[in-house]
Amino acid sequence: MPRVVVLISGRGSNLSALLEANLPVHFAAVMSNKAGAGGLLAAEQAGIPTEVINHKDFEGREAFDRFLAQRIDHYLDVSGDVSIDARKRGLVVLAGFMRIFSPHFTKHFAGRMMNIHPSLLPAFTGLHTHQRALDEGVKIHGCSVHLVTAELDHGPILAQAAVPVLINDDENTLAARVLRQEHQLYPRVVRAWAEGKLRIDENAVPHWEGPQDPNLSLQNPAP
Ligand code: GRF
């Protein structure tokens, strides 16, 4: 089974959704830059190796990223041979990992690293997406799974889920509606990748294989 490393910084509800989805992958490790991250417990209970690497222990972003990349490579257990099948080289899944990466890191994992972002990208990159969506008065909001590139929240979009913004919504109610969709969407995309339905070529361009089931890449508005 293809190997997956998940990176978290916080509560880890997306991690739990991935762990509960019975995916045809081997979770090689769950790593965090925060010692108290709630998701670490879920990983331990599932018998998955965990590792905390505190970014504050490093002199600068580059040094932290280089060490983190080495540790991920260790868990993914792959050679540097870029010609081998992408799935065999494993996948890095960002699930609420609150760090901006250096270009070296995103290049190293190009085409092998996904993120889930709580907005319909390219709208609302960065933080506080739900409040910003409310402030703009958008009527449809949601979440996106995308490949990670050097530019924050800007890699190719793999799948999206949309939800309506309701009249009485506040940041919390809207965030909860989006999060429910995140928990369905992320496992769906990782499963598609693991089963070879979502192929990512050597140029880090995603391709959905065969007759595409629109439900794989689009979840329609759902209250
Ligand atoms: C989610 O909203 C996700 O979209 C964003 O960070 C949050 C992580 O939540 N990238 P959790 O730790 O998975 O509960």
Précis, in short:
The chain is α/β, with parallel strands linked by helices.
Which sequence of SSEs, written as H and E, runs from N to C?
Answer: EHEHEHEHEHEEHEEHE
Largest sheet geometry:
8 strands, mixed
Oligomer: single chain
CATH architecture: 3-Layer(aba) Sandwich
What is the general shape? globular
- Kindly report the name of the CATH homologous superfamily: Formyl transferase, N-terminal domain
Secondary-structure-derived class: alpha/beta
What are the defining features of this structure?
about 220 residues; alpha/beta; Rossmann fold; 8-stranded mixed β-sheet; two-stranded antiparallel ribbon; 7 helices; about 35% helix; binds 5-O-phosphono-beta-D-ribofuranosylamine
What do these coordinates show?
- By secondary structure, this protein is an alpha/beta fold.
- The chain has a single domain (3-216), classed as 3-Layer(aba) Sandwich (Rossmann fold), CATH 3.40.50.170.
- The protein is 33% helix and 22% strand.
- The protein contains seven helices and ten strands.
- The protein has helices at 13-20, 39-45, 61-76, 103-108, 129-136, 171-194, 214-217, and strands spanning 3-8, 26-32, 50-52, 91-94, 113-117, 140-147, 157-164, 198-200, 206-208, 218-219.
- The strands form two sheets. It has an eight-stranded mixed beta sheet, sandwiched between helices. Strands 8-9 form a two-stranded antiparallel ribbon.
- The termini are far apart.
